[in-house]
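Input sequence (924 aa), recorded before submission:
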Amino acid sequence: MRRSRGLTAALALSLAGAGTGIGLVLMPEASAITAPVAFTADELPTWQPNGVVWAMAQTGGTVFAGGTFSAVTPPAGAAGSEQEAVNFVALDAATGNPTSCKLAFTVTDGTATVRTLVVSKDGKTLYAGGYFGAVNGTPVSSVAAIDIESCTPKASFHPGFPATVRALAVTDDTLYAAGDFNAVEGQERQRFAAVDAASGAVKPFVANADEPGRAIEISNDGKNVLLGGDFFDVNGSSTHALAVVNATTGAVTKTYTNIPSNSVVKDISADATGYYTGNEGSGGGVFDGRIGLGTDFNEKWRDRCLGATQFVLPYQGVLYSSSHAHDCSLENQFPDGKRNFLLAQLTDHQGAAPAPVDGFVPSPAKLGWHPTANDGIGEGIGPRVMSVAEKNDVKYLWVGGEFTLINGKEQQALTRFASTGDVGAPTTPVASASSVKPGEAQVRWRTSYDADDSKLTYRVYRNGSASPVATVTAESLEWERPQASWNDTTVKAGQSYSYRVTATDAAGNTSALSAAVSVTVPTSVQSYPNQVRADGANLYWRYDDTVSPYVADSSAAGNTSGIQLNAPALRQGPGAITGTSTAMGFNGTSQQVYSDRRQSVGATFSVETWFKTNSTRGGKLIGFGNNNARTSGTYDKQIYMTNTGRLFFGVHNGSTRTISTGLFETYNDNKWHHVVGTQGPGGITLYVDGQKKDSSSSTGTTAYQGYWHAGGDNLTGWPTKPTSNFFAGQLDETAVYPTALTQTQVKNHFDLAKAPTDTVSEVAATEDTYVNQGAPSTAYGASTSLAVRGTSAYETYLRFNLPAAPAGQVLKSASLQFKTTTQAGAGTTDTVSVVPVTGTWTGAGTTFTTKPALGTSPLGAIAGVADGSAVHSVELDTTALTPVLGTAYAVGLKSTGTDPLWIWSSEATAADAAPELVLTFGAK
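Predicted structure, token format:
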């Protein structure tokens, strides 16, 4: 199929609101469904055969599917009953329902099958190849011609192919065939042949091959034919799996010797810019991917993903493929792991092609189109064939094969995807929030995954507001979900803020809101994390996350978040440094955190972490490896502990190079310790608890792409290997740097771990009520909402048990936080004041008639509150609050206007509903 190439999607990063977006990785060859990907990933209802679909073709809004099956049934949940379909079915491209065209491909000996279908250039004739002896009773021999209008076989067309025909290609007057045969009509034609498209008479085209032919495609100018298969020889010329021959004579015009001997070509397709092959192999060193050829038949690029490519379909500048790709490490994409059955990538590089790797130009990157399938029945390959059909101005990508599931739903052998009607929303973002200095809070989230849109728009909501405070656009793929971030620079020291994030695709489908994450902005710089960021960490995992499986990267420009594997324990305290930061616990058998972004690491770097353990089984604390959730096969740049508690740091630069603590310097004493390993031009150095322990002159490192691991990964073959690859204990403050930290920097980090930090107390109201001048005898202590108004008066009372100041600290900041209700007009245009309650009151008994006296000196005030349910803060006078610390203390809310404020009470169940005081204590 020849199609013109499409346009690539422009990349953008948009920001709205006060703050800045950071930590975005924009992948220039990923795209949304709008362009260049042409189809959604949402499967449409389609009738399904009860076997395997091997072949497809289309014309005039009808799709033909051939294979090995006996019936078709309606899609799950749809009306209708099973219909007989003997190895062939014709379906309406727009509805997925069978048409009135019924053909039965049968054979008297063996199992009949249809392996290839192709439509004539005038759209009037359907040619079928496979292994069969009759069509609707009309005798044929593995090739048939069908009149499409009448849906009847052409009895006069019956060339004799004595064995399976696996591929067909047609011009105005010639039908080319590939397969297992050695003769046609008694004339020697080994695996490839050509017959007259009208009469079936054998043509003088001779391209004899020594092994089966599986693919055949006509060149754009019609002068040549591309052959694919298992062969090693064509017409006496040495060429494996791929060859180009003269379209008239079959004489070889180009040979290929760079496809491994254990790999074959399963499919060849063409567009105006060149040709594409799908390849399959078995055994070590196979080539399972795709090749892009220019119009001169020379190789442009090679995709060395592993996973048995069955079909390639170029359409509007995108190459769609069916396979079970499971390892694209050689393309610097996803590592060996889950199978990806349907993929899309650009047909050509945009701009200059990258430099060759191992002698091959890497392929264009994969795009954001990921419908899922399964291995299915038969050989367990999954999808095997694809075709694009159009009806009523809508394009449909049809897929056939062995699968029995599509996007996790039961669907066998056939499915289809449309060019319109994207209904799938992105996954819900997983967010984190933190702040290390006054005036700034970082909101971070793992980018979402959308099966047909890799460019998503994220909206950040603060304090429960329905209006976003920021909009950020970022790119992601299923296997590449870098962290995105936004800096809120409007926050105030000592106040708490909550954030939620949504993701929206190009069609407007929006995810659910992320779980709310909260942060209290410190009143002074937090020394340790601020220094790690200042020293240039490009990965910084603090392990303060509250939601699995995300681990936020807190580095200044971080986009290397982590993924928890097998549920390590969250928020283990106390952590390694002073303050409220927590650690993560690992079980020593299966748990770890791996980075969510594939990357390479140079020969200058530092790795740093805090750890605490009493294990006698050792394990890896931190390291780099070429896989993520699976055990790495290549791994180094690692710090690990032996069974006795010694620490080793090492790299691989042709062989393992390690340094270690002394024989009796052990650290499995269940105390927090700080370890750093560095490599630079002077070699490698190991530091523990701020002190240099060992070094060597080893420089250089093995170059490969991979992922950072904390808590475990492979250690096979390394000196003094412990019993376990996995670490049992707690980790905290893990960081990676693109520089070699100096001894001064390392010692500074160790010392700063003990630096004083703010202590934050969030104190919920123990009792609350309001009074109503209009109902002076009514008590509202059980109400889920509270009210404030001057005339006719509402007053609200809140009681808190205030903590005493921690030793050596004083009250630095205080604020009252409340959340407006969801009722219309809950906000107010009036100023609301917070004042001390000087009289007595109870939630259950106080009414307007018995309301308490209020102080005259305001503790704080807020000048109006916007409508819409959201959290709001009122700064309070720390001088007035300091004397009452450690006591029960009540405040009242009042105003002088006529516009009421409605807020949630402590009895409400809404998120972040209860009023609370946020008290920040710091050093005197």
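Checked by second reader. The longest strand covers residues 809-819.
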